[in-house]
Specification:
Layout: H1 2-36, H2 39-70, H3 74-107, H4 118-140, H5 146-168, H6 177-209
Helix pairs in contact: 1-2, 1-3, 1-4, 2-3, 3-6, 4-5, 4-6, 5-6
Length: 214
């Protein structure tokens, strides 16, 4: 029974890692759609979001089944509960990427991001998608130190968010105010995506070590 339980945990970990990879790809595609006004790509991100919703539900069902049938304790219990927590956060990350894709769709065929801010949003996409990819590694590998690593990446996202906000609120801003609002919301989506990734890393580290980092 113990061997079967560990196999089930590995399967659960595999689902979480796949969710993290899917969230990373969604963010990468959403950013590309935003910066290139690629409507079909934005539609792909939006339609694919339902897959992450389904994966979250499957993870929760499998985790609750393990809790009911195996009554895990200590580290095993932390691992199962972490799976439920992390699945919710990863699904939310997918939602945030979809919000970015939705903004690209609403603005099409006109660009939402001014040319001078395109490098900032490109970096936001790179940093946040890399954070999600790193979560997949943490699920399968050594989770210790992951929280600190992703917290540093999150600080960079905060810096980029602050740069955008300083630009759109400056006295020299000449773009339409609606664009300023859209950009403010977009950077918030990236910031929240990064925050969710940090939360997942924190819970994974706690599940692995029994110590809550931070």
């Amino acid at each position: 029974m113990r061997e079967g339980f560990q196999d089930d945990l590995k399967q659960l970990d595999g689902r979480l890692a796949a969710m993290a990879e899917a969230a990373a790809e969604a963010m990468r595609r959403a950013t590309r759609a935003l910066l290139t006004m690629d409507l079909p790509l934005a539609e792909q991100v939006l339609s694919g979001d339902a897959d992450l919703d389904d994966e979250r539900a499957t993870c929760e069902d499998e985790a609750y089944s393990l809790l009911a049938l195996q009554a895990p304790v200590a580290g095993d219990l932390r691992a199962v509960l972490a799976a439920v927590y992390c699945a919710e956060k990863l699904e939310r990350m997918g939602d945030l990427a979809a919000h970015i894709a939705g903004t690209a769709r609403r603005g099409h065929p006109e660009p939402t991001v001014p040319a001078d801010l395109e490098p900032v949003f490109a970096e936001l996409g790179e940093v946040t998608s890399a954070m999600a990819e790193r979560l997949a590694d943490l699920v399968h590998g050594e989770a210790r130190g992951g929280y600190a690593e992703l917290s540093r990446a999150d600080e960079r996202v905060d810096e980029l968010h602050a740069r955008v906000m300083a630009t759109v609120t400056a006295s020299g801003w000449t773009q339409d105010q609606r664009i300023a609002v859209a950009l403010s919301l977009l950077t918030r989506f990236y910031e929240r995506f990064a925050d969710q990734a940090v939360s997942v890393a924190k819970r994974l580290e706690f599940a692995a070590t029994g110590d809550l980092p931070g």
